[in-house]
Write a structure and sequence with these properties.
388 residues, two-stranded antiparallel ribbon, 51% helix, globular, 14 helices, mainly alpha, single chain
């Protein structure tokens, strides 16, 4: 058996011993350890905790997480990540493209992005057929008088626009349009939805109220404006990500795009103004960071960080927002670690949330490894991992 070769240092020590001269103590190497690849660590940990069957039903939080896993797949090329996404979707889509989903809410449409992805990756026509079910549902989906999609086709959500809702449908729309040559409709609709929502929901400080009720009948709706009372951070984060995704996908001369750019610039300024200077993160009720009980929330902080970094990279906003995003990134990284089992834990994530008042939002339970936070973290980390 061949012996391993001696290192240069070992050879020097051996030679010094032969001639009777004491060697100088070698300097310790100053090598910086490689930074943890938190996207890979989080995906591996989540796959260890959940199978494609046990991860949950057809839902937007799982859809968000799996979209983040797909983004990680695109960078790493690890086929297991895509296979996992496919195994999840195949629980809900049969060989003929049929699905039991009725798509009676915008929330139910978000995971439709995975259908477009799988058609792009596999070429299987069943994913096109399933995705088209959502496209066709939008033809009859209820709208406000000025064309905004209701948050859900139910009595309790009738006439309501929630800032959350645009992320559930507009990224799907532009991606569907690009994959299936339907941009003439999908790009126009996505831009129109984002602009309609902004007209009703964007406040003077650039941030967004959580919701708007055209009928003014919801318990939370202001009788004059129809707006909900608070600026809940994750609702704002959903809008911010959706707006950037749609800007990425639409041509510069698309009608409505300049209006959306103006909205995004006002929103970016509002996000920057409300960043917590101590942590770099953002508060659960975004504009009331100094009030009792408020706390910095991980999913919206990831969303804001992603949206600002992407918008600055693409020139939608000033390059100065890159530093705001870097501070946000450092702040969110403080919330991820490895537990005693070696798996990642991402903390301080608000659970799913309806519309309410200040006391309601700050009292929302904080979870570890909630899919809202896991998905948002992956999108952020894939955008910023080289900018630490």
């Amino acid at each position: 058996m061949r012996r391993p070769a001696l290192s240069v240092a070992a050879c020097a020590l051996a030679l010094a011993g032969l001639v009777g001269t004491a060697p100088a103590t070698p300097a310790a190497p100053t090598r910086t350890p490689p930074a943890e690849d938190w996207s890979v660590a989080l995906v591996e940990s989540t796959m260890a905790r959940h199978t494609p069957t046990s991860i949950g039903g057809w839902s937007y939080p799982v859809g968000l997480y799996l979209y983040g896993q797909y983004r990680t797949y695109l960078r790493t090329g690890d086929a297991r990540y895509l296979t996992y996404v496919k195994a999840y979707v195949d629980r809900f889509v049969d060989q003929d493209g049929n699905t039991a989903q009725k798509f009676t809410s915008l929330d139910s449409m978000q995971a439709g992005r995975l259908l477009v992805i799988l058609h792009h990756e596999t070429g299987e026509d069943r994913y096109r057929i399933a995705a088209r079910t959502i496209r066709e549902r939008l033809r009859t989906y209820p709208r406000t008088a000025d064309g905004g999609f209701w948050h859900a086709d139910t009595a309790s959500r009738a006439h309501q626009l929630w800032s959350d809702g645009v992320y559930m449908v507009t990224p799907f729309l532009v991606e569907y349009g690009a994959e299936f040559d339907d941009e003439a409709y999908t790009d126009r609709e996505a831009l129109a939805q984002l602009n309609t929502y902004a007209r009703h929901l964007q406040a003077d400080n650039g941030l967004f109220q959580h919701a708007f009720d055209e009928s003014r009948t919801a318990a939370w709706a202001d009788k004059e404006t129809g707006r909900a009372p608070e600026q809940w951070c994750r609702a704002i984060g959903w809008y911010a990500m959706a707006a950037v995704n749609v800007l990425d996908a639409t041509a510069k001369d698309r009608p409505g795009r300049e209006e959306l750019l103006r909205t995004v610039r006002r929103l970016a300024a509002g996000i920057a103004r409300t960043q917590d200077p101590a942590t770099g993160r953002w508060f659960q009720v975004a504009d009331k960071g100094g009030q009792e009980g408020n706390w910095t929330e991980t999913s919206c902080s990831s969303m804001f960080t992603y949206a600002l970094a992407r918008a600055a990279e693409k020139g939608y906003v000033s390059a100065s927002y890159r530093e705001v995003a870097r501070r946000g990134y450092r702040g969110v990284l403080e919330k991820i670690s490895r537990g005693p089992d070696g798996l990642t834990d991402l903390t301080d994530i608000s659970i799913g949330t309806n519309v309410g008042d200040y006391a309601f939002y700050v009292a929302r339970p904080r979870r570890t490894n909630d899919f809202h936070g896991l998905g948002a973290f992956l999108l952020m980390n894939e955008q910023l991992r080289k900018q630490r």
